[in-house]
Design goal:
This protein has 15 helices and 15 strands. With 423 residues, the protein is of the alpha/beta class. The structure holds adenosine monophosphate.
Length: 423
């Protein structure tokens, strides 16, 4: 795989000297442009400005991009522009690691493609086959799918990918983490060799690099910012606390925060249910819960009630940490520190999306020191430690342990000149 790389360390929208192109200059077709105008986007984001012309030309692409950079539109707009008339068998296949991401991507495609005569189909597990089979029979141009259910349909010969023109593998590193690679490879073998291929991945571990070698031909490589760093619009801090005071601190934080939508992450499904139940018994309910032990119907309802604002708090496991576009999340709270440092960046990426500023708060207890250190190594800097004013902390050794290792430069530890409370 040889590739031409466009690397942008800084978001050009932040630099008034940089001329941003306009959507109309990128070569998109008028129906797609009309839909984009209706969305109210002013200018393309950097990844869109770089990817759209190359994808319109039919180039393969490998993209590393932070969440909230407008990645979905970057591939959706040119792919839709290149599909003219409707046909009976799928010409574009987009693979997503989770059902929620698949739903979100198809919703964006339908919005951008509303003036085109194309048919879209969503295929994921956890729901019956009946409606999916009906949709297949009706003919479809664009399929957005999770790998397992798609493979079921292909193996049962409900349809085939012989007419496929474009394959998009989104969140490839997430697919790898979730154990989907064998399915992805089987699907790849069922696609025609002559096709346009796009691969998006926040990180490129060796297995993804090998996949890219076989999947892509002379791709253009686009990377916006360093995937390891949270967007600059996110203020994030660590709140050390004794394990026994964790929930009390959460409630205290919620009381002090001027929030309208808070996403709370826990490490386990049981933890998510427990925190939600406890919060329901405070004045902060009603609370929505999202994790993979919930039925598809419950997952949809939880996401909807949070998006609609019916529930101002959503408690979730990492299933929603990546990619899910819940616009306008005012705060992210990590009730537990994620074990995987990349998940920290993805979790807090739910706030501060598309350049809005956001706040992310991480509660930190003694047993999590190694996770915290690996996050700080991963993002290459210490995260501010803060304490909650007016909260009656019990003294705990956690306050000393949590100090970031001093570098030669100045100490970037507890901010605002405060020491953690003592007994
Ligand atoms: P994504 O990174 O694809 O998940 O997109 C993040 C959010 O940015 C979504 O809510 C999009 O609707 C929004 N978005 C995408 N492109 C633009 C744009 N050019 N201007 C403003 N918002 C955008």
């Amino acid at each position: 795989m040889s590739s031409e790389t466009i690397e942008t360390e800084k978001d050009p929208t932040e630099d008034p000297a940089t001329q941003l192109p306009e959507f109309k200059d990128l070569g998109l077709n008028p129906e797609v442009l009309r839909a984009v105008e209706e969305k109210g986007y002013n200018n393309p984001t950097p990844i869109q400005a770089q990817a759209i012309p190359a994808l319109l030309e039919g180039r393969d692409l490998i993209g590393g991009s932070q969440t909230g950079t407008g990645k979905t539109a970057a591939f959706a707009l040119p792919l839709l522009s290149n599909l003219r008339d409707a046909q009976k068998s799928p010409r574009v296949l987009i693979l997503e690691p989770t059902r929620e991401l698949a739903q979100q991507v198809i919703a964006q495609l339908e919005a951008y493609g509303k003036y085109l005569p194309l048919k879209f189909m969503l295929l994921h597990g956890g729901v019956g086959y009946g409606r999916q089979l009906d949709a297949i029979k009706g003919g479809v141009d664009i399929v957005v799918a999770t790998p397992g259910r798609l493979l079921d349909h292909l193996q049962q010969k409900n349809f085939n990918l012989k007419k496929l023109e474009v394959l998009v593998l989104d969140e490839a590193d997430r697919m790898l983490d979730m154990g989907f690679m064998p399915d992805v490879r089987k699907i790849l073998r069922l696609c025609p060799d002559q096709r346009q291929s796009l691969l998006f991945s926040a990180t490129i571990p060796p297995a993804i690099e090998r996949l890219a070698e076989t999947m892509l031909k002379d791709p253009i490589a686009i990377s916006i910012g360093r995937g390891r760093q949270p967007a600059e619009t996110i203020q994030h801090a660590i709140y050390p606390v004794d394990d026994r005071q964790k929930f009390d601190l959460l409630v205290h934080l919620l009381e002090k925060l001027d929030y309208h939508s808070v996403l709370i992450f826990t490490r386990t499904k049981v933890g998510a249910d427990t925190i939600a139940r406890w919060l329901e018994s405070t004045e902060h309910g009603p609370v929505a819960v999202l994790h993979s032990n919930r039925t598809q119907r419950e997952r949809d309802a939880a996401l909807k009630s949070f998006k609609d604002g019916q529930c101002e708090i959503l408690v979730a496991t990492d299933i929603v940490a990546r990619g899910i576009d819940i616009s306008d999340v005012s705060h992210v709270v990590n009730y537990d520190i994620p074990e995987n440092p990349e998940d920290y960046v993805h979790r807090i990426g739910r706030t501060g999306r598309a350049s809005r500023s956001g706040d992310a708060i991480t509660l930190f207890t003694a047993g999590e020191i190694e996770f915290l250190q690996s996050i700080e190594r991963f993002i290459g800097k210490a995260i501010d430690r803060k304490q909650m004013p007016d909260f009656e902390y019990n003294w705990s050794p956690i306050f000393e342990q949590s100090q970031p290792k001093k570098k030669k430069k100045r100490n970037r530890g507890f901010n605002s000149g405060t020491n953690m409370p003592r007994r």
